[in-house]
Amino acid sequence: MGRVSVEGVAKAYGPKRVLQDLSLAVEDGECFTLLGPSGCGKTVLLRLVAGFETPDAGEITIGGRLVSGRGTNVPPEARNLGVVFQDYAVWPHLTVRANTAYPLKFRADDAPQRAAAVQGVLDQVGLGALGERYPSQLSGGQQQRVALARALVAHPEVLLLDEPLSNLDANLREEMRFEIKDLQRHHGATILYVTHDQEVALALSDRIGILDPAGRLRQVGTPREVFDQPADLEVFRFLGVTSFVDLAFDGDQARIAGTPLDLRPEGPRPSSGALVGGFRPMEAELVSEGGVPGTVKRVALLGAVVDFRVEVGGRELRIQQETSEVMRGLGLPVEGQPCGVRFHRLRTFAAAALSGGA
Amino acid sequence: MATVTLSHVTKRFGGVTAVRDLGLEIRDGECFSLLGPSGCGKTTTLRMLAGFEDLDEGEIRVGDRVFSNSARRYYLPPEQRDFGMVFQAFAVWPHLNIFDNVAFPLQIKGLSRADIQAKTRRALADTGLLKVQHAFPGELSGGEKQRIALARAIAINPQVMLLDEPLSNLDPKLREEMRFEIKDLQRRLGFTIVFVTHDQAEAMAISDRMLVMRDGVLQQVGSPIEIYEKPSSRFVFSFIGLSNFLPMEDRDGRSYVQGAPEAGPLEAPRPTGAAGPTWTLASRPTHIDLSAEGGLRGTVLRRVYLGEVVEYRVRVGPHELRIQKGARDQVFEEGAPVGLTFRRCLGYAESSES
Amino acid sequence: MRPRRFGTAELLLLLSILILVVVVAIPILLIFWNAFVVEGKPDFLRALALLKEPDTLEALKNSLVIAGGTTVLSTIIGVFFAWLVSRTDLPYKGTMKVLFLVPFMLPSFIGALAWKILLSPRGGHINRLLMDLFHLEDPVFNIMSLGGIIAVETMYLFPFVFIQVSGALERMDPTLEEAARISGAGLFTITRRITLPLMMPSILAGALLVALYSLAHFGVPAILGTERNIFIIPTKIYEKIYASGGNFEAIRTGTMLSSILVLSAAAILYIQSLVLSSGRFQVISGKSMRPMVLKLRGLKWPLLILSVVYIALTVVLPTVTIFLVGTLKTYGLAFKLENMTFDNFTYILFKWELTRDAIWNSFYLSLSAAAVTMLIGTLISYVLVKTKIRGKFLLEFLGVLPFSVPGTVIALGVILMWSGRFGVNLYNTAWIIFVAYIARYMAFALKSTSAALEQVHDSLEEAARACGASKWQAMKDVVLPLIKPGMVAAFFLIFLPALRELTTSVLLYGPHTRTIGVAIYTLNEDGETVYAAALAAIALVIIVLGQLLIKRVTRAKIESA
After folding, report:
1. pLDDT digit string (tens) for B84-143?
2. CB contact under 8 A, C457 and A87
3. Beta strands A81-84 and A158-162: pairing type?
4. How far apart, in whole angstroms, are the C-alpha atoms of residue B77 and residue B53?
5. Angle CA(B168)–CA(B170)–CA(B176) in degrees, nearest 5?
6. Which chains touch B (3 or more CB pairs under 8 A)?
7. What is the ipTM of this complex?
8. What does the DSSP 8-state code read for residue C123?
9. Residues forming beta bridges with residue C294, ordered by sequence position
10. B-C C-beta contacts closer than 8 Å
């Protein structure tokens, strides 16, 4: 139905090779997000699926039909897609209703059917009463909804979204996230979503594909899988804030700077090469007694959370704890003060991977 | 002594009162923030301090000297106030190289060439710009331009530094770095900082003390931790972090949620600050616990996985609350019934604005 | 490797290049060819020898003096008024800003005509008045001089500087000056060390425009200088071409001078692009805060009066003169009601074939040239902005070329090209003027339509395609409606200037193909001052009506968009 399959796709602009041998599959009805930093090629891939560009190699199949590759190139207008652009691309010279109705011009429905469909989808996005307005009279969030409505009105199999929320403020972004999710459930469309915003990716997706700056797919999985069980150090470092400590193993006993740990680090333990333990800021805490010795370099009160920069074994770690807990516990430490660090979770990686790569 | 004192300062623009009867004392050597939403009067206050605006009422003193006095129509012009000032858009002069930018205030003062050289070099060294002193601002990044602005401001070794949203044009990572750099500069050179921002996290991270303003009126003054733990009003509570508010009413000695009798009574004792038969319960998303049984009854509307935390939207009667739990805590499905326990909360009289 | 197809984009590129080559490039090339190639061989020495002749040398010198003087004077006046309007508390600033732009609307050669009537040494009305009043022997003012030409050109060119500088002053980030203030500097120091240096690019941009315009200008020096044997390059070219009646040497002198004109214009534009692209001076602010304003105190009203008097003198006085003289039954009569009549106007408008034809010619030439240029401009802009094929740079270069070519040179080039050389002879027909107008105004059309096309982001077209529209449908439904305002702007940007111009058509007109400008000029040359003035008055009315119409139309479009 709305399955999108990308196989061995490559794309270069002059000497710059943006995508090489990329393959992934988006299942029918799922919300799949391509997550990566700017310049990693995620937008290029979206444009290839949409048909605005043609791949240098590889095949793209939508809903079982070959649209790119093996000599075929189906133009965008024949791919039955809905696309929402980062800058909304809502036409300023047409009303909201005319914008939304445009895709139906190319279908065989008659006028009353068309009008009903348009009003229906406008109601769905909460713009039912604004049909006669012009885009310049609408806010950014409302324009974004027009773009959504227009993309959905012809019931496409696949919906492509290119960073549609990045121009909205934080509150609106949250709201629109929920709306997109609801709309997807309602229409049953497959979504391919492209963004650099991790929060949106984690919150919205059924599965996420992580692209590195060189255009390679590093991991594909559910948000939890990708966040909790990163395939490698790159993926781990890409999502959220991360810190690393040098780990030494004495048989099964893990040590940091000589101090034994009372937790078992997760992850592979290759026999040779130095190891580091990676963790996220809330996976460690400062303790007044015991723990791995360190020095508090900086304390920053960030509202609900206190942010610590702590030096342990020559590396700077970032630790965050809930403000009330800190106040009730050891109190706000002073910069320069020695402290102890207790880890709740550590993942092992090869130390060599830490210094190399982006 | 570089204490800055404002007494009964009022400023009007046409029919609008931008700052109303503001009084405060900024101590020598402290980092003091003016925090509030846009249009609250914080920038106007800073500009009155700088001397760019006069006062409709009140007085501004630095140490013992009067700088602005509306009754006597006395205003020391900005060029004579010896402040250092950093603007939001950096205001670095593109036609002068970095050295000349930083040396400008020293040249105006008419110092000797040797003096100017020495003081400029020192300011450049303090801000890490010695290597690029011959470059022009157009060749530099936003963060570097902000350092130029800082260097220029500290060149005359001012007693008071005024910073007008200096970091809002920088990206988040850089913002954090610069915060530390500004604090370090202050520690080394000992000036008083008056810092204007709309970002509460920034204010809390950098200040010794801060004030929260709204519509020209001072809401609360205190240290960041004081303001975070004991916000004096509902507005300050909501401005200083993510918040949940529940309107409550008391019956038979217990507190119930207005409009949601089925939720049951609040099991915890009434928080301080709650007065009268109706009051507002205020709580942070991280201070609410969820359980299958007990507590205030509600239904899970949404569950969003955000990596380190899971965020829930829970409906209690007609109200919706936002709750954050760790990713490893017990998970509740959307649509499931759930009980809310408030580990910590505050209460506000209902009269304190909605 | 995919095979490259020869698609529509390539076809359009070729077509665009072909059009620009024929319309613009070849005429210019012919100028240089004619100047430097004698009997098939390049001969720079022969060409340079022509320069050494006393009258051409004199014309060069005069051009430099006039352009230089006009530029300096316009800059001083323009900066002064811009500063007055943008940085002081002058009362009625809004009105003054509009009034200072009025000189733009008046064709400067009509102004020259009026000033000749007022200040010519022998018969000028003001001179006679003063001589009578103070019992003087000699006239006080002589407008038929280098100084006079400079003065009149300045009156109508200073808005170039005014617009640039007042715009820049208003858009300048006020914190740049506040930072200087808090650093201890007073107003004088701030102006000297911060404001003025930052304004330099705008001042230079305006000044260079004035220089460019003055070098290439025909009307004012022709009316005020030719009688007194004061020639500048464009009027010298005119004299050579007409006096010679097709003599080779004369034409060569003309093309030689034209080459100099083109090279100077190109040099000026090059300097301007250097200044503007230096990039140091990005001083525009996003926030709209009030800039520092100087309190004028006691000088407030005197300066306002000065400004109003300036406008009155430079705008009102000449206009009134033109209208009054146009109503006289015979030139030289005193301005009494019994000596005035409207018959001149009705004669010109309805009875006299010469003037009727001129009005008609101007209208249909400028309308058709505007329409055609707009369409061609849109096509070329589309290729430039929206396609990604190699070879675009050639098109860009050709498109910019007309900017640096003065009207006189285009006229001469068009003569060389279309007088039978390639089998087509348009000389003395309206067609040759038509072709010249297209070449002359192509650059304006390109600028306007390119800007409009750049506003239509690719995503707007792509969104249409994603909705099911083919490439052509997307263009029709999305691109075309959105660039219509730009196209309309281009149309008017060409129509009005073409309607009132003189410099180009004066070299190309034939017995039946006069334009309004040519008619006014030739009437003046023939001594028919009253009719010249009457026609000029009618022209002024047409121009003002045209401007108002444009304002109404563009505002309506903005409101409906």
Report:
1. 999 988 999 999 999 999 999 999 999 999 999 999 999 999 999 999 899 999 889 888
2. yes
3. parallel
4. 10
5. 90
6. A, C
7. 0.87
8. T
9. C88
10. 74
